[in-house]
Amino acid sequence: MAQILDPGSIVVDDWHRSADSKEFFNRILYKTKRRSFGILEAPVMPPNVPVDTVHYKIFISGKSGVGKSALAARLAGFNIPNMHYETTGIETTVVYWPVRLRESGRVLFFRLQLWDCGENALRRFDHLLPSCKEQVDAILFLFSFSDRASFDDLTNQIARGSEPCDRVVKLVVGTKFDLFMHTDVTKREVNRFQEVTGLPLFCMGEDVTNARNLGEVAPLLNCLAERLWYQDCLAARSPIPEVLSQSDAATVVHV
Q: Which superkingdom heads the taxonomic lineage of this protein's source (predicted)?
């Protein structure tokens, strides 16, 4: 079983609720909406508030229709179309997310470039999957609570997305959790899968809500940031706290 981090052991997980975080989170908001950042754009802080930005590439993996594009939109705070359409190629979305490190109090902006590619396009063009996985830092493996086949395919997904001795961060996201009353996947099955794999598992609804309600995306983004930073510390052999735990292996986060 994979070892997992105690949530909040590296990143202050509820920092977005504190008063001293407003100056940073206001840089990714405009009135009631999240700001849209292009490839060369970034949040601008005052000169007296130096903040480092760390860059990561995230691949969103899953069967057609599970909500990969909707998840990217939700994490970025964007509206999504009411009608589903298959992503015809590779689409990228940039998400900025500020975090405070627990030990040092240092604030970092995480720049997460989300890569989403349609399942049919991956099957037709052999070069797309290698492009998505090239220098990737994390993979989000998606399944839909309303699609049994997508849950059954998770093990194959994770096997295809893994390389021997890789350090890629892996998280599982169950989408359309707000349709749980009509689910094809039971809570017991989800808990059992999480216990066996040891991977963090988040349950998210389909709708994109008010962008200022950052609490709805904070658990997933903080977990992602925490594991990415931890992997960087391991790669650089930097001192890190003893934060590994087996105790939370059965934890499933409902967002």
A: Eukaryota
* 38 occurs within a structural domain: no
3-class DSSP assignment, residue 253: strand
**For position 215, which CATH number holds?**
3.40.50.300
Domain count, the chain: 1
pTM exceeds 0.90:
no
Each residue's pLDDT tens digit, 147-198? 899 999 999 888 877 765 578 999 999 988 766 566 778 888 999 998 898 8
Q: Nearest Cα to 13, choosing from 254, 171, 219? A: 219
Structure tokens at 94: 């940039």
Residue 98: closest CA among 221, 238, 211: 221
Q: How many residues does the chain have?
A: 255
143's enclosing H/E stretch is strand 138-144
DSSP 11: B
Is 43 inside a domain boundary?
A: no
